[in-house]
Design a protein that fits this description.
Endonuclease I-creI, 9 helices, four-stranded antiparallel β-sheet, rod-shaped, 278 residues, 53% helix, alpha+beta
Length: 278
């Protein structure tokens, strides 16, 4: 009611209440609880959204003697007027805190498809109410933020972990498990992509270095000939020509006797310096 309802003052101590939702299960729940808990009469109007081509459910609570008491029980009204923040008697117990958060989310909450970017939001009309909800989330160790959006306030969560914790807190355990599964899949996919990208980058870097080295070796061979070079440089040239895609470490392993990566590096640096001098 606080997130999706509209309270209308029709006269002294005369109130009407309306609640609009696009979700049929929420409409059914509101009507059932209104009848069972407060014995309120309701009127349901089904409208069709021109923009989204989807049904919208308007639940009307006409003025009736028991409505004012129901509004007080729901933490909407008290003797001194409208409740701006969050009535403490509604969240005295942890189960009540979870129920209140669940109701707020069912009224104005949204979670994006977890296969894309993680995003959670609840749109709240009053700033005091939004800040009270953020404090309530902090009590449940869920860190949320507020952003003003025109005349309303958006409470949002960005991390998949925080969204999973919220879903578990309000009792949406199946949704929380789905979220956790998607988090694991995305984490593994990101790790695999990171490894593949690193391998591609390393391979590209090694291939480019190999081309530069072979170019320098051809230049040196053209100037001095193979016999005019020290045995150490001749050996590394033969290794590089034989294994053009090998890393420096692999070239050292192919040498006889095997050479360290540092030894191969220094020999190639001598050849590149000779090519530069030429």
């Amino acid at each position: 009611m606080r997130t999706e309802g509209t309270l209308v003052l029709a006269g002294k101590d005369m109130y009407r209440l309306e609640l609009s939702t696009d979700i049929p299960s929420v409409a059914r729940l509101v009507i059932r609880l209104a009848h069972e808990l407060f014995d309120l009469e309701t009127n349901l109007i089904i409208r069709r959204s021109v923009l989204h081509k989807t049904p919208n459910y308007l639940i009307e609570f006409a003025f009736q003697p028991q409505l004012k008491k129901a509004l007080a029980t729901m933490g909407i009204l008290r003797n001194d007027g409208f409740v701006q923040g969050l009535d403490s008697h509604l969240i005295a117990k942890q189960c009540c805190q979870a129920a209140y958060l669940r109701g707020c989310f069912m009224g104005s909450g949204f979670i994006s498809n977890p296969r894309g970017d993680f995003h959670f939001e609840m749109v709240i009309e009053q700033e005091e109410h939004a800040r009270a909800l953020v404090q309530l989330l902090e009590k449940r160790l869920i860190s949320a933020r507020i952003m003003q959006r025109r005349s309303s306030y958006m409470i949002y969560l960005k991390s998949g972990e925080a969204i999973s914790e919220f879903l578990a807190c309000v009792g949406a355990h199946q949704a929380a498990l789905t979220m956790e599964n998607e988090r694991v899949v995305k984490s593994v996919r990101n790790d695999v992509n990171r490894v593949i990208n690193a391998e591609i980058a390393n391979t590209t870097k090694a291939a480019n270095a190999s081309v530069d080295q072979i170019y320098a070796m051809k230049k040196v061979l053209g100037a001095f000939g193979i016999e005019g070079l020290p045995q150490a440089l001749r050996e590394v040239i033969q290794l590089r020509v034989s294994y053009p895609n090998a890393t420096l470490k692999q070239l050292g392993e192919y040498a006889s006797p095997p050479l360290s990566k540092s030894a191969i590096y220094h020999r190639i640096r001598r050849i590149e310096q000779l090519a530069h001098d030429i």
